[in-house]
């Protein structure tokens, strides 16, 4: 099976999984997650808590189970992901719900009839990551050559590989440091560990590139 066809089949499979899950139950479960990640999964504290809205279903499920098994060590997440607190079906439901959330990247246009609460609610959902400094042209070249196979050309992710575009730059930098220090396993170990081949300037340029494409459809 050719790789493009495989990715299409995986995408269709994940879309079907979202439709099959109980999104209302997922929304209810998310009230616990919202304490750190925000009601709309937008994250917070300038990247201390990552954006999880719109993230890949497969990736969310995999990471929640990794927290449970402590293959990804995160002390605050560990108790919330235990089987008695978050059974496998609940993991699927909350992952599907979070994946279904769409956060706009442009400020809303208000109607004269919109009250203060409506305006506040709409603006709180806007997700615009500040532009990171760097050489965008080089960042695009490096990203498309080294990262796009797993994370997609537009940074939206594929299958078990996460969406990167629209994520807090500070969070991404922190995770890259953890990968390089072997504090967190990277998903590409089977193909040689891409991150270890990148120069520090290339990493910064990739981050700059990702912040430059977040408003694209």
Summarize the structure.
By secondary structure, this protein is mainly alpha-helical. It folds into two domains: 3-105 and 118-124, Cytochrome Bc1 Complex, Chain D, domain 2 (Orthogonal Bundle), CATH 1.10.760; 136-212, Cytochrome Bc1 Complex, Chain D, domain 2 (Orthogonal Bundle). The protein has eight helices and no strands.
Topology diagram in text:
Elements: H1 3-20, H2 23-37, H3 57-69, H4 88-100, H5 116-124, H6 136-151, H7 169-180, H8 200-212
Helix pairs in contact: 2-4, 3-4, 6-8
Query: What kind of sheet is the major sheet?
Result: none
Number of helical segments with 4 or more residues = 8
Uncertain residue ranges: none
N-end to C-end Cα span: 29 Å
> Could you tell me the number of beta strands?
0
* Secondary structure: helix percent: 40-55%
CATH class of the largest domain: Mainly Alpha
CA radius of gyration: 18 Å
- CATH homologous superfamily of the largest domain? Cytochrome c-like domain
Q: What is the N-to-C succession of helices and strands?
A: HHHHHHHH
Structural class determined from secondary elements:
mainly alpha
CATH fold type of the largest domain: Cytochrome Bc1 Complex, Chain D, domain 2
Q: Strand percentage, roughly?
A: under 5%
Mean pLDDT comes to 89
What would you call the shape? globular
């Amino acid at each position: 099976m050719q790789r493009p066809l495989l990715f299409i089949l995986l995408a269709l499979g994940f879309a079907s999984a979202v439709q099959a899950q109980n999104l209302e139950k997922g929304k209810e479960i998310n009230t616990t997650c919202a304490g750190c990640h925000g009601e709309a999964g937008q994250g917070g504290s300038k990247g201390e808590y990552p954006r999880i809205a719109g993230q890949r279903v497969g990736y969310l499920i995999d990471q929640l189970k990794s927290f449970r098994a402590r293959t990804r060590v995160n002390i605050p997440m560990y108790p919330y992901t235990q089987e008695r607190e978050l059974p496998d079906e609940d993991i699927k439901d909350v992952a599907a719900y979070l994946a279904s959330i769409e956060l706009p990247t442009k400020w809303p246009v208000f109607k004269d009839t919109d009250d203060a609460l409506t305006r506040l609610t709409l603006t709180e959902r806007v997700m615009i990551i500040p532009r990171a400094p760097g050489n965008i042209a080089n960042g695009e070249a490096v990203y498309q050559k080294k990262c796009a196979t797993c994370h997609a050309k537009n940074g939206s992710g594929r299958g078990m590989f996460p969406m990167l575009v629209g994520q807090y730059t500070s969070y991404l930098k922190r995770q890259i440091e953890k990968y390089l220090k072997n504090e967190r396993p990277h998903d590409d170990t089977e193909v040689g560990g891409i991150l270890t081949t990148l120069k520090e300037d290339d990493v910064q340029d990739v981050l700059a590139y990702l912040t430059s494409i977040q408003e694209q459809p």
